[in-house]
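Anyone opening a protein record will find just a pair of labelled lines. A complete record is shown below as an example:
=====
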Amino acid sequence: MRILVVEDDVQMADMLAEALTNRHYVVDIAPNGEAAWNYITTLDYELMVLDITLPKLDGIKLCQQLRDRQFHLPVLMLTARDTTADKIIGLDAGADDYMVKPFELGELMARIRALLRRGSTRSQATLSWGDLSIDSGTYEVTYKGQLLPVTPKEYAILELLVSQGRRVLSRAGIIEQVWSLEDPPTEETIKSHIKNLRQKLKSVGAPDDSIETVHGLGYRLKSLSDI
């Protein structure tokens, strides 16, 4: 699940990115409104955390521009301005929620989860494919009730595969969905992660080919009718 943090304060942006990454979100950082607009028109995001005071294109104008162009991603607006009038301006510009700095990180994460639950099918509490189950609240993967130990990236790849079902995902597509723009891996890294996932699935009794290779295209989950 990909989130865009739009914040010109480097320390604040890094803090938010670290906290979100630790919770298995893929995070990109835009230092100003113009960069954020370029990201949004290039990649698909599930949510944007948006500071109001930004260079080049401020948060209010960026949010208005998003809504005018029919972008419906949830926007959580951050600001140091703690007045009712400022909140009304932010919400009227199209923000879905509004938090005043300084804020409690736990509350911010709870509000992000609430916004994501409103519209994203991938934010369901539990995803499943046959006997494979993924709990997005605890980040646990189980097969027939057996816990499957996975790394954060393995979890993200498996969650993506389960959310897409039989749709084929290319290696480049997996990279785009699971890694941030700042640290994209090679396609060989994807092959390694898939290999590790297959081995771990096999270790708990899942079929060897639970994750199928569609040669020349990418990967998808084995058909439920063949399990």
Q: What stands out?
A: The radius of gyration is 19 Å. The chain has two domains: 2-122, 124-226.
